[in-house]
Amino acid sequence: MKLLEPYKLGDLELSNRVVMAPMTRNRSPQTVLSDWAVEHYSARASAGLLLTEATQVSARGQSTFGTPGLHTDQQQDAWKAVVDAVHAAGGKIAVQLAHAGRLTHSDFHTLRPVAPSAVVPPGLVRTPAGTKVYESPWVPQESEVANLVDEFSRAARRAREIGFDGVEIHGAHGFLIDQFLQSATNLRDDKYGGSAGNRRRFALEIVQAIAQSWPLSRVGFTVSPGGSHKGIHDADPVATFTALARDLSARGLGWLHVADLPLGDLRPSEFLRPVFKGTLIVSEGYTLALAEEALDRDHADLVAFGRAFTSNPDLVERIRLGQPWRVADSKTFYSPGPEGYVATVL
Question: Are 198 and 126 contacting, i.e. CB atoms less than 8 angstroms apart?
Answer without folding.
Answer: no
